[in-house]
Every structure is written in C-alpha cells, then in structure tokens.
Amino acid sequence: MSDLIQASLAEIRARLAGGDVSAEAVAKACLDRIAETEPSIHALITVREQALEEARALDAQGPDASKPLWGVPVTVKDAIVTKGTRTTAGSKILGGFNPFYDAFVVERLKEAGAVIVGKNNMDEFAMGSSTENSAFGPTRNPRDPERIPGGSSGGSAASVAANQCYASLGTDTGGSIRQPAALCGCVGLKPTYGRVSRYGVIAYGSSLDQVGPLTRTVEDAALVLSVIAGHDKRDSTSSPRPVDGYADFSRSDLKGVRLGVPREFMAEGLDGPVAKACQDALDRARDLGAELVDVSLPHATRHAIAAYYIVAMAEASSNLSRFDGVRYGYRAAEPKNLDDLYCRSRSEGFGQEVQRRILLGTYVLSAGYYDAYYKKAAQVRRLIRQDYLNALGSCDALFGPVSPVTAWKLGSIIDDPLKMYLMDIYTVSLNLAGLPGLSFPVGEADGLPVGMQLIGKDFDEAGILGIGRASAVVHGSTVDSIAVLLHCQREYFISGQLSHHSSSPFTPVQGCGIRIPRGHSPYTRLNAPEDCIAGKFYEKLRTQAVCAHSYAIVYHETAKNKRVAKGLLIKNRLRFASSPAGADAPHREPASANAVCPCRLSRENAIADGLRAVC
Fold this sequence. Notes:
eleven-stranded mixed sheet; alpha+beta; disordered C terminus; globular; four-stranded antiparallel sheet
C-alpha cells in the first residue's frame, strides 16, 4: 500500500501545499488503490478516470493557498449530482442519467480544489441501512468483506476506510452517515438541518436529508465541513446563519464539559460487547474531566422508528413521483398506453425496498389516513425534538451509541425489513430533531469497529467537533492517536526540531530521540496489527521509553497473548510489525551522534505521565 493513501486529509493537504508531492501523484495513488480494492468491496458505482487530467491541470497552476482542498482526492455519494458524470442514486431508473449541473456541495468541492475520483455506491435512493439495496450490487465492509458497511452511505464509508480517498460526502436521512461510519471505523458528521445546502441532492425525505463528510479523523471532518457549509439561495431550507470556524482544536481534555448520556440508549437492546465498548468510552471521557449527566429522551427510542418511517416514506412517495419514465430516467420498452408506461417504468426501474416505501408513504397520505398517521407522526416529531432540547438545556452535548450491533453478515437480515429498520433506533430521532451529530470510533467488539455519537445543539458543529477531537485522540480513532499511543501525553519521542502541529493538544519536549524533518507533522495514521488497534490497547497498556533515534516500543497485553508493536519511522511514516517479546525491551543506544538519548526519562515516569490520560 502506498504511503500516500495512508495519510489523513490534513496531512496530504499539507504535503500538497508544500510541494512535497504532486496532485497527479496523489490522484494516481488513489486510483491505483481503487483498482486494487474495488473487486472485493465495490464501494463505487462510477470511477472518474478524468480525475488524473484534472489533477494535472492543478499541478500546472501550482498550489493555491486559497483553496483548502487543493489536489485532495475525494469521492461523492451517487445521490449528489455531478455535472458530466453519471449519477444514479443506486437505482436502475437513473442508470443512464448524466446531469448537466453540479450540486451545491460539488461546486464547493471544486472551488476548494478537490479532485473527485468516483461516485459511491449506496442503497437505492438512500433507502436502506446496509448498502444491499443498490441496483448495482452490495458494498462490502473493508474490515470484513463478508459483512455490510452500513447504509445508506455505505459506499462512502467503505471508500474512506479502504483508503480509496481522503474524504467522502454522504447524505444522512436517518443515520446514513453516522451508522456506516461507525460500522467501518471512520468519522461521520451529520450537520444541523439547513447548515449545508441540499441543492442538487436527489431527494428521499426533504425535511430529513442532510449532506455531510465521512473522513478518517475528526480534524478532517471539520476541514470538509468548512468547505461545504454555507447559505445557498437555491435551497429555501438553507440557513443564512454565518459559518463558524470549525478547525479550532485548542481543547486537550474535557474539563468543564457536561455530557448527557441518554439512559434509553444504554438500556436493553444494546448488544453486550457494544455496550461494554461504549461504557469504556464513557469512562475515558470521565477520566478526561467530563461530567457525565444522566438524561432521558422518552420519545426518542420508544416512538422514533414509527414516526420516522411514516414521515420519511410519505416524503419519499411525493419525491419519487417525478420518476415516471417520461421526462428522464428509465423508460419501459413498447408501452401499450400511458398507464402501462407509468406502471412498467416504475415497476421495472425501482427496486423492492423503494416500491415498499412508496406504497406505504402513499397509504399514510391518502384521504382518511392522513390525520391518523402522518399528522400524528408530525406531532410525535415535535415531542422528540423537545426531548433533545430539554436534555441539551443542561448539557454541552449528548453522548451515546450509534448502532445497537456491529456490522452484520451480508444477507442475514435483508429479508426482514422490520429488523433492518430497528437497526436505526439510535440515529433516526436526530434527523427528526434536525440537530447535528458526530460519529467516531471508540473501540471494538469481537474485532469489529464500534462507534459513538456526539449530539449537539442547533448549529453547534464547532462544539461537538472540539469535544469529539479531544475524545477521539484518547479513544485512538484519529491521526493523533499516534501521539497518545507512542509519544504519550508529552511526546517523549518527538524531536524539538519539529514544527509543532498547531491543532494538537500535545506539547513537544526538547531533547527527545526521533527526529522528523522540519514542517512535517508527527501525527500519522496508525497501521497496527489487528490486535493492536483502537480500543484493544486499553485492555492493558504499558510503554517504555527506549533509546533509539528511529523507533519507540509500545507493549500490548491481552488476557490471551502478549505482543510488542514496534514503530519504525520511515519518511515520516510509522509502520508497525508485530513480534513476540518479553516484558522488557533491551536498552538501545542512539544510532546517530545527532540523536539525543531519552534514557533519562524513566519507564515509570513515562507510564505515570503519559498513560494517566489514557487508562
């Protein structure tokens, strides 16, 4: 795997801006990775080979500091229209649709200098929780190809997790960004309704849909949001509120933060191993200084699924009425009359799940049933929003699980719609309330990623991003987890030569052993053996400051085995190899006269000072 594709968006952005690597080289690395991984995960419907030409054009112009995503390869969910590139919404009925305009968010990406390398697979018209409802076949989870990646933005999450791109745009109607992010082990942000324009987004539920980023780190999510957020006069629901600064990550702990924990989210129904990972994350948040407050959302779990699917299906029935085989999209061959054209075009063009939701939505809107179903669901929706506002009145944010289970096996529940709908139990209420939510990994259960979500007040994306960044560092889900896991709180192995990363909460210490080229960030993506990543580090973790100019040792013990992960610094990349070792590593002298031996830092002090914030 190329070193380039393992970097975070923030890292690759800095390297592109500094001229260390060309936009063409980065785009080619991503396209090569797509060619390598697509046969096994199928995260994309369309690969944009013209991305290389666009990258060359950027190189000819040179780096542009005014473009925050200059040369960065990204992907876009196929429900977001892209001029000149096929946009299908995962449906046969739009299989040949080639838009003549760009969505607002695509315009913003292009203006920021991003290179779109592909369109992501998705559940048809965003209707699904597993990306198995696509007319182009299912997407598979990069962590385990026998399992689903979540949905409906499963292709976007899989692309990010498989290192096909540095960020992806998805849509979230009932958790479709947050849930796949949690199941694939990446970061997903659903902004406040109206924060990002829906212009050019193929609608499912117009009062629920929202565009947001999926990335590898919280910092990367903030960078993308800063690009796509803003008012758009073409969208009547777009907020004119000024865009906040999302990249202020001065917070290094959670002191003074009140996090509400909805008791209904942590109750019966949450799978045991997932509940343990979530509880561990809550304990770590408390250790970071957060005050955990018990709150109640009485309507958000008991009534949210019923209310959501009534509202969403009613809106889908209305939105999808435009696909009739007349103006655009799939058209049945040799229709007998107009009725036959309508019936056959829609029956042949729509998949089973879409037809089911159209029928149910039409039913609840029909005469005699509107008051009993749709009006009642709208009233419950207001109660759900009020539950959130009441809870957030005494808290800075709410913190709870995203999915009741980890990624399940492909095909295991696709024939049980009710069970599939219940997988959204912790996410749909947030869309009904219109509030922002940030999902990020907090650990693992049975070797699969577990995510939790921070829920904020209206338009407080900056707040939940700041809390999430501080939390995710310790949880080991972000690029900065390197600093926690290897360098601990004070970065014992980082040289004083380092031009310090302005958004890091860590303070470099002079006279330490590893030397990194000036201007380079030490916060590189952790690529560890399977049993040495994320939450498993916290089962039992010890560190030892060793004397070496090029590596550090992290001990990882579980109940069953003991392994040592050795980090070797090569061109600012920390690569890991697992090898058996005893309880203590041998003393190693610096290999270079220019390297300062950190041996004066005792192992006991390293553990006491470095791991206090972690364990």
